[in-house]
Every structure is written in C-alpha cells, then in structure tokens.
Design a protein that fits this description.
By secondary structure, the chain is of the alpha/beta class. It contains six helices and eight strands, in the order αβββαβαβαβαββα.
C-alpha cells in the first residue's frame, strides 16, 4: 500500500503479511530477508525462581503484550491463538523493548525476540528462559518499491542495512 503509493520509501518489517490484515506487497515491491530470530521469555527472578519455564507455568502466568494498533497482531499473539491459548494479559506495551523493561519487580512474563532480549537484559534481577510454547519464528525483511531500485541513496541504505543485519550474528555492535 504505502510503498506502492510513494508514501513510504523503505521499511523493515516481518514477512507474515496477515498480521497486518494485508495480503502482502504488490508486484512492484521488492523484499529481501535481513535476519531471522526466535522468541524467549524474560522474567523477574524473584517472581519466577525456577531455572526453566514449563508450559504449565507459562499458561498460568501473567503476560504483557505489545499493542501495535487495532487489527494488528504480533507473531506471539498469532502463535498463542493457533495453540488455543488465551493468556492472562496484565499489561500492554507500545514496543517489544518496552515489554522487556516492564518486567523488573513484577510477575509478568514477556515473550520477546532473543536478539533484542540479549541486548536489553543487563540486570541480574532478570532471567532469560526458553519459551515452552512454540512461537512462529521472526523473518525480518527490508522492502522498497522497484522505482527506487537504482537510486544511489536506496542502494547505499540497503547495503548498510544488510551489513548491520550480518553483524547481528557476528557478535559486533551494528
């Protein structure tokens, strides 16, 4: 929509188009996979002292979710729905970063992207646990309209985006 109409020149987003009530990009929109990630749980050690998160504990826990707007689901919410899981939602955050920062001092379980969590969780108070419920993997793509394919600024920005994504796996700061 917005790329095709020229409202947006470039975007980075997940490729699961149905999350946005959208059938996907039109024939003139180019997409390229930047990186993949999976999901983990972040908990406060005082509220969740166990070394692992069991499925039973995950189902019984209070969760926080990201609210991107009306009619927009996250991969986490879509996976919960597919599993028939109706979580106890105690808080909503505007971003996955905020989701993680809401956890200290609370019983909340945040389900967020592994790479993001590794960067954000600096406090020994927090614990990162494997998620016991299958969550669809994240496939993050960059997208642009074909009319910008040869534009020098676009070429440069796409190359810089690729380089930053490659550094995610190399352990360097992007």
């Amino acid at each position: 929509g917005r790329l095709e109409h020229g409202d947006v020149d470039f975007c980075v987003t997940v490729s699961e188009w149905g999350l946005y009530n959208d059938s996907g990009p039109g024939p003139h929109v180019r997409t390229e996979l930047l990186f993949e990630d999976d999901f983990v749980c972040v908990v406060d050690r005082r509220h969740h002292p166990a070394e692992t998160m069991t499925l039973e504990a995950y189902r019984a826990a209070q969760h926080n979710v990201v609210g991107f707007g009306r009619g927009i689901e996250t991969l986490v919410e879509r996976s919960w729905k597919a599993a028939g899981f109706g979580p106890w939602i105690n808080a909503t955050a505007p971003s996955f970063s905020t989701l993680v920062f809401m956890v200290p001092g609370t019983p909340l379980v945040a389900t967020a992207q592994r790479r993001l969590v590794r960067k954000l969780v600096q406090s020994p108070r927090l614990r990162i646990l494997e998620c016991p419920m299958p969550i669809a993997p994240l496939h993050e793509h960059m997208m642009w309209h074909s009319r910008n394919e040869a534009d020098p600024a676009h070429v440069y920005f796409r190359a810089a985006s690729r380089k930053a994504a490659q550094k995610l796996d190399s352990g360097h700061n992007a």
